[in-house]
Amino acid sequence: xxxxxxxxxxxxxxxxxxxxxxxxxxxxxxxxxxxxxxxxxxxxxxxxxxxxxxxxxxxxxxxxxxxxxxxxxxxxxxxxxxxxxxxxxxxxxxxxxxxxxxxxxxxxxxxxxxxxxxxxxxxxxxxxxxxxxxxxxxxxxxxxxxxxxxxxxxxxxxxxxxxxxxxxxxxxxxxxxxxxxxxxxxxxxxxxxxxxxxxxxxxxxxxxxxxxxxxxxxxxxxxxxxxxxxxxxxxxxxxxxxxxxxxxxxxxxxxxxxxxxxxxxxxxxxxxxxxxxxxxxxxxxxxxxxxxxxxxxxxxxxxxxxxxxxxxxxxxxxxxx
Length: 321
Hints:
Elements: E1 4-7, H1 13-20, E2 24-27, H2 36-42, E3 48-51, H3 59-65, E4 71-74, H4 84-90, E5 93-95, H5 102-117, H6 120-129, E6 149-153, H7 157-168, E7 172-176, H8 183-189, E8 191-193, H9 196-202, E9 205-208, H10 222-227, E10 233-236, H11 245-253, E11 259-262, H12 273-276, E12 281-283, H13 292-311
């Protein structure tokens, strides 16, 4: 019997063609997140499902799929939208798309860092508003990066790529992570390992690259923000819920920290209204992997994972199993 493959969002044609080599493909024709009810109806009888980060893959979804489901291919590095335990209980494989979005996300991180420290978004808004301005020595002064300390929270592939970019800008790098990286990696990056509290106190820029777990949810809360320098900047390109947005808005408004660059939000696509009112908050709509090359590579890797499971050769980037 021909395997049935569900794709919950439109993806590049090259990935669809690859999936079609392995089975009958159904792609959601509405380019938006499927509602849980729509997902549960569509997934019934599927052998494989290609999911996006806003698709909730839990016991109810798996029950709706039935016993035929063999693989969930999540088009993202993180899989906080997936109940891995529920998949394990049913013998369903989970795959993700690591590696292919590392450089794009690291580039976006540095873009946000520069936009925040050099007040680029604020300056662009000023120009577009038609507000009169004139150059002078104190006009819209920002902060340079040379000799400053970048604190990286989570030293995986993306964290390391950000560290390499920081070296090119003449920054010093410190990091914290669940597990300390190998000595050769620390030497390559000139990175010093610090406890979280000390990293917050020493860093001029804190950049978040950790997965969203129970232990990292609201990792950056009011207490953490109060430890940072008043001149420091926070950048988040990981997951929105790693930051307590209400606490961050308060810290920015009260100038507990100098600024924040955000690509992700706790309740996407909603953004805390207080953040929208603050000039020292730079925000973009989850663009970390948003290059045509990267999004295509992510979709193709997900498709390769599906094909590998269905033809028996095995997935390229498994999470469980």
